[in-house]
Amino acid sequence: MATVRVALPQHLRTLAHVSGEVSVEIEGPVTQRSVLDAVEARYPMLRGTIREHGTLQRRAFLRFFACEEDLSHESPDAPLPEAVANGKEPFLVIGAIAGG
Amino acid sequence: MSKVRVLVGTRKGAFILNSDGKREKWDVSGPHFAGWEIYHMKGSQVDPNRIFASQTSGWFGQIIQRSDDGGKTWHQPGTPPGESSTTPEGMPRSESNKFAYDATPETGKPLTTHQWYDGTQHPWEFKRVWHIEPSLTDADTVYAGVEDAAIFRSTDGGKSWKELPGLRGHGTGPKWQPGAGGMCLHTIILDPKNKDRMYIAISAAGAFRTDDGGTTWTPINRGLRSQYIPDPNAEVGHCVHHVTMHPSRPDVLFMQKHWDVMRSDDAGDSWREVSGNLPTDFGFVIDVHAHEPETIYVVPIKSDSEHYPPDGKLRVYRSKSGGNEWEALTKGLPQSNCYVNVLRDAMAVDRMDKCGVYFGTTGGQVYASADAGDSWAPIVRDLPAVLSVEVQTLD
């Protein structure tokens, strides 16, 4: 069981009624998909706000960063960096500057 | 004495303006949902304390919010009756932001593309809810007009939404195209005398009517003429900006088209132009006096590329004859250097004995008239750009 830290943009923190980072427990591989599945399971009001309904594609104006790397275009099933999986670094959901 | 509640959606949040029947002193609350675009808010006639809001963002997509206490508190609908309103972790349950086009072979399959700006075909993609229309008879039933154009219905207070696919499946979809604001279904009008009849309007497709509760739809655009489509008199493709109706005469419709102010006396089967002596017949809003079905209001805008009032003068035009003869209403409105726009859902009327008229501007002003348009005063003047204005008259 891994405990993964996730940093959400301010508007999503407001929707989820949280004030800081959130943590989710992941069984099995720590990937974008497993982390976001866990986030949406715990905060169902965020379904559709990070990934599109149905397709689960990343919304166009959101980016995924971790460990100073842009992971937005990595496979959703690729393992996230070890530092994310062991909780040393957060998985960052960032609103693109161009969006909105 | 009755009270008035004005619901204002803006580019950066929602505001609620309350006043007594005199409509002189206003209490302003907000911003609600700060930082989000609030395309529309509307209250239920069945339960006026139930208000729905479309909260939307280019980053985060679509959220539906509901208040059951007149706008004091809000939640995303989605709790089944009898169940806890929160998850075991204490979080609200919600899937009310899910708008999925009907893709079943029986209904959704026939139509999957519309015309793109460049004339090529483009797949339907959900973007946002432009307009929310609560049922006239059931507090849990509500309709949503969305971009890309389609109509959805919820029968559980906004918790879940299902498309009425007969509209998108009408067969003319490949000829629908986005206007400058996107391909949006922005107007939904429920017939108070016929529960199975409903009107909608789309930019840029035109107006449609259903007579069977939303199962099948008929384009109602005969008489419209639009130079920006290959056949100016085509069945669909017209950029209708807004349509309005007086509830006492549901067969009489008034339309502000991209250009032209139009009128129908046969439930949309045919239209005739009533622009008359307007300084320009381009505009977005149109509305009807609460007690005088032949008294209508528009705000002329200079042109399709110059979205501000002609001559820098903000003027509401009123016709007391159902069109053609118009008078400028200017008292209290800026008559120099005014270059704001008034968007299509940003005008509304109250039902007080002396009808109140309200509109919001892209400059952040919300103007009110407590004397049917004879004089105006700003309720607020420095909000974010106003996207929509609705009014509730409360007993």
Produce a short descriptive summary.
The complex is a heterodimer of chains A (100) and B (395). Chain A is α+β, with helices and mostly antiparallel strands and 100 residues long.
Task: Tell me what you see in this structure.
The complex is a heterodimer of chains A (100) and B (395). Chain A has helices at 10-16, 32-42, 82-85; strands at 2-7, 22-26, 62-66, 69-70, 91-95. Chain A is α+β, with helices and mostly antiparallel strands and 100 residues long. Chain A has a single domain, classed as Beta-grasp domain (Ubiquitin-like (UB roll), Roll), CATH 3.10.20.30. Chain A is globular. The N and C termini of chain A lie far apart (36 Å). In chain A, 33% of the residues are buried. The model of chain A has no long low-confidence stretch (mean pLDDT 92). Chain B has 395 residues and is mainly beta. Chain B has one domain: Methylamine Dehydrogenase, Chain H (7 Propeller), CATH 2.130.10. Chain B has one helix and 29 strands. Chain B starts with a strand and ends with a strand. The model of chain B has no long low-confidence stretch (mean pLDDT 93). The interface between A and B is medium-sized, with 25 and 22 residues.
CATH topology of chain A: Ubiquitin-like (UB roll)
pLDDT average of chain A, as an integer? 92
Q: What is the 3D shape of chain A?
A: globular
> Structural class of the helices, strands and pairings of chain B?
mainly beta
The H-and-E topology of chain B, N to C, reads as EEEEEEEEEEEEHEEEEEEEEEEEEEEEEE
Number of domains of chain A: 1
Mean pLDDT of chain B: 93
Major sheet of chain A: 5 strands, mixed
